[in-house]
What does this fold into?
Amino acid sequence: MTIAGERPVPASENSAAPKPDAAAQIGGLIFAVLLIDPDLRIVEANHAAENLLGQSAKRLVGRSVRDVAELLDQRVLERFANSEAAVVARDVGLRINSKEQRVNLTISPLVNHTGWRVVTLSESARDDSGSDEQGDVTLGAPSILAHEIKNPLSAIRGAGQLAERKLADTDKPLARMITDEVDRIARLIDRMQELGSTQTEPVAPCNPHEAIRSAIATVRAAGANRVEICEEFDPSLPAVLANRDALEQVLINLISNARDAAEGSDDPRITVQTRFVSGLAFNAIRMGRRVRLPIEITVSDTGPGIDEALRDHVFEPFVSSKKSGQGLGLALVRKLVRDMEGRISHERDTRANLTHFRLHLRIADKASLAGSNA
It folds into this structure.
């Protein structure tokens, strides 16, 4: 309440904490910010820039931005050569330490400071981190059609079984082929229904290493052939907030794909690594809130990598680099990870000839741990 004649006190003056200055605001941003001088040297870098570029600000300052990151889009390079040009570009290629990734980029010339620019970088949405209305419609379509398709399939299967009993022994394999194909199509539709489902399974505290070892055991039981599966675990990791069954399914899919990719290489090997990425700016926006995802699980393989034409679409339905692939495995992985409010992404390390799939998950907080122990 304001008494007559008194000046209203702004909320900021009532607050005990001082207003964050410009440096604190830039430091808290979840996207990378670089200040570049007229000679293209990095003068300042925020915490998110350190994470994206893989180096501390102390090491970045003074270096040419061209030595730190290489832009792969010729049009953006041409604009970058003009120190007075403002640039806004989405989903452009960037190579950092031989690793290629897609980023969103802005370049802002500073008025009254000729040649000085502020560059921002944020990872492009190559996973399920953001909302995608068109994708939601696409994933919902299989659920709408599945019921109508499965009814006649049941009739066809029944007719095939009846025919098998009445046919001569020489013709029975044809009838069995009918039932086998019907079963295969039914399994495909089941997976499509999972993909289109809007229901989410409940999450609870989960030991990530137990889930990983269970998934590895499942893949090995299915026949890992000559592919070596290595574990590089951080034993100090806390529990994650996830659905155990869904997490295992995600890991089984990723490790199975890695096994298939590595099988033909000279050094057929898969590495599953866990680590805590403290402060790393991997955040998922869910219902208008920011979610920290500091637990990282990486599945790496020595295979040839995903076809470059498919790399930006691997998590989309019906996209597959396998000859007999249905293109639903990674799309289902994306959905399951989304349901756990996690993040899935991939990258190709051309220097090490490795393909990495990175899964980022939440930590189980004290409230969820207390609930699981109740």
Observations:
- The chain has twelve helices and 15 strands.
- Confidence is low (pLDDT under 50) at residues 1-6, 126-140.
- The radius of gyration is 26 Å.
